[in-house]
């Protein structure tokens, strides 16, 4: 089962200790084969919409900064419970904030 774990931005600035802890954790998850991809997202982005034959491209940002997604991790796990445990470990590591986890369907 694959899950996309997204985190929202916070006011707290990361420090060297957090960078070191995250690096070690990412190495652990990668070595175990659980972590497939991870990254940060730029806050703006763009939206592409279609209505009939018309395609419209609109520059972002679209949501309030506190609602935007700041980063993501794509993981492959055996169960929903394992995905939740990884998310719990992440939140304990980075502190206060919010993450959203959604199962990814398809091959």
From TrEMBL:
Signal sequence segment: none
Pfam families, A to Z: YCII
PANTHER family hit by this protein: BLL7171 PROTEIN-RELATED
InterPro entries: Dimeric_a/b-barrel, YCII
Native source species: Streptomyces triculaminicus
Protein name, UniProt field: YCII-related domain-containing protein
Top-level taxon in the UniProt lineage: Bacteria
Ranges of residues in domain YCII-related: 1-89
Family affiliation: Belongs to the YciI family.
